[in-house]
Amino acid sequence: MPIARLTDAEADEALAALSGWALRQDGLAIEKELKFADFNEAFGFMTRVAIYADKADHHPEWFNVYSAVRITLTTHDANGLSTRDVAMAKFIDSIA
What we know:
Elements: H1 8-16, E1 22-23, E2 30-35, H2 39-56, E3 61-65, E4 68-73, H3 83-95
Antiparallel strand pairs: 1-2, 2-4, 3-4
């Protein structure tokens, strides 16, 4: 079953309900940068997200330098944002 891309209105509504996420300039992804106390805390966070992502079969694009983690969420099969990205963003917000 194909994964549906969110409409612009659905994406705006979802983004308004999330904390600190921004729509990427092309409108196809959401992004957030998180800061942690140190590398161990950042890596522990990434590990928790990785476990969730593997179970959900939906994986973030991310970049880590020491205590900072930058995350991009998009659904390649939908060529943009989907409910899968919103669910992952909500999970990330719940553990960050």
